[in-house]
């Protein structure tokens, strides 16, 4: 891999706004990859996709306090700016936006962007306020970085759909691109939180992928009942001693509303704590076309 | 007054986004005046201010359903597009954005911009959801019209402050300009709702201005007690038989929090129903510099 030149680092909103305005005046399109740092191969794939699609690639690195609950891992979330900068450079990032929390949130911050439908089920029910924090920071980053397009991983399946809905509802002039999940060799979806797993937990964490594979196989075999698929996935997760299921759901692929029958594309979605570390994974399932009964 | 050429009317978000992108590529600045139509001299003054400050002036005309409560006057709010277009043309408007409600809000619209502090007192307490609707539609209009600056009337004193807070908190790249209140000869602040007033109500409506004048005079005379000023204003409103006070408040000029003593600049703010029509008015009061005691 070619090492590209060091990206330009900007740590405040106003200089970033001026910098991207220059890019746009020069006729260059801007692609944004919002991240919380701790960049892994999944993030790199997002940066590469932005690199293909936009003239100027901006990566934001910001551990957003407002999307963490009071008992969550904000304080301990991995931060390694030097390593992240090396990854950004290697993938051809032009600009890195790396603000302090105090720069992005005034002490009397009082404005929130709240998506109230797509964000309600799944992670939304277990993490109250999470998607409000996500929408608020993404809206801020869009206003600061003025991207033509922004790339998000499909691994955060609900987040991607919530952001698409926000962009549609608020008429944000940004194309939202969902990038494929990148997995470890054994199928575990890449996540900055995987580094919390000790070897035993890491081994058990394969159950998420296994549960999704089993559900997909059942759908291929003709299973169309959502409840049966949920029971199947729950059973697979239950095979691991340190796995605690948060949810195993079959929902509409766009609105994330519960479905009873697998008709159009659905999302099979899982959240599981493995020895205390919360992991999510999901897969879109589409039943094969069946002969229409005459 | 010179009649300028007819403005270009655009009624959907995407063409408007393309149109303002052209303006910006050509190096022209864009000024937006968001209105609900029924344009009067107050609105015209906003358009003139935008005309002075920006190369391209956009006026949006949209009676926003989400800022009206269920028992409010959304259905009956005055609409007169032909007359509004004439006013826009006379004041030198370049583009008019005039969408249908169905174009701006999808049936499953679910994303809201919610300012939770500055919007809480005054009109916010009597009109739940009002400022959420205002912030949401203004955010949408900013994303659609991409203005460099936007002009709002100081007559809607709380709205102006809520929007400033939203712009700050969400890092919107828009300069918010507050324009002076335009008044009728007898002091009544211009409002599209003044046309609801019959002659008797119209006469009684002068009490808002009179109450603010009395409060300002009392401050000039040395009154520094907020409660005394509220009682004074309440008394003036009570002089009119068909006037029902909603609030008479003395609040911090920026945060709109209640104050006990007049120290820095405060806002004296009134909401009064005159024979059923809700009117608001306000004035910033600043005590004269006093000799500092030795």
UniProtKB/TrEMBL annotation, chains A, B:
Protein role:
Catalyzes the condensation of pantoate with beta-alanine in an ATP-dependent reaction via a pantoyl-adenylate intermediate.
Q: What is its EC number?
A: 6.3.2.1
**Keywords, A to Z?**
ATP-binding, Cytoplasm, Ligase, Nucleotide-binding, Pantothenate biosynthesis
PANTHER family linked to this entry = CYTIDYLATE KINASE/PANTOATE-BETA-ALANINE LIGASE, PANTOATE--BETA-ALANINE LIGASE
Q: Which GO terms describe its cellular component?
A: cytosol
Q: Which CDD domains match?
A: PanC (cd00560)
Query: Which biological pathway?
Result: Cofactor biosynthesis; (R)-pantothenate biosynthesis; (R)-pantothenate from (R)-pantoate and beta-alanine: step 1/1
More about this protein: The reaction proceeds by a bi uni uni bi ping pong mechanism.
Q: How does it assemble?
A: Homodimer.
Q: Which GO terms describe its molecular function?
A: ATP binding; pantoate-beta-alanine ligase activity
The reaction(s) this protein catalyses: (R)-pantoate + beta-alanine + ATP = (R)-pantothenate + AMP + diphosphate + H(+)
Indicate where this protein resides in the cell. Cytoplasm
User: What is the name listed in the Swiss-Prot or TrEMBL entry for this protein?
Assistant: Pantothenate synthetase
Task: List ligand-binding residues for (R)-pantoate.
Answer: 67, 159
